[in-house]
Amino acid sequence: MECTIDWGGPEGMLFVARTGSGHVTAMDGAPEGGGNNLAPRPMEMMLTGAGGCAAYDVVLILKRGRHAVSGCQVKLTAERADTDPKVFTRINFAFTVTGANLPDAAVERAVKLSHEKYCSATAMLAKTAEITHTITVVNT
């Protein structure tokens, strides 16, 4: 896996990332840090990556279990250290999983497997942050 990050130039703090899979994304800083608020912050991107990784796992686990999952949303709330490096110290993943006749136990198992076994992003962030989660199952 690889990516390349290019600075947008002296007008601000915009950075453009090109991934090995051929995708492009931007990151920027807050105005008080020299940025122009044109894109997410790098730490927001890390949080987004962890949420995407966990949601991917949950949906895949439920689908493999032949459950009729039709939606998955995860809202992450994080706290950071007060001093540099301002690492994440607490992260809560609030899952809302929707589907037909979804057993609560199956969704709870999928979330647990993601956090304890499959999600690489969560595993890395757990080195500095307390990871918690809440689960809401919506049966349609």
UniProtKB/TrEMBL annotation:
<dbReference type="InterPro" id="IPR036102">
    <property type="entry name" value="OsmC/Ohrsf"/>
</dbReference>
<protein>
    <submittedName>
        <fullName>OsmC family protein</fullName>
    </submittedName>
</protein>
<dbReference type="InterPro" id="IPR003718">
    <property type="entry name" value="OsmC/Ohr_fam"/>
</dbReference>
<dbReference type="InterPro" id="IPR015946">
    <property type="entry name" value="KH_dom-like_a/b"/>
</dbReference>
<dbReference type="Pfam" id="PF02566">
    <property type="entry name" value="OsmC"/>
</dbReference>
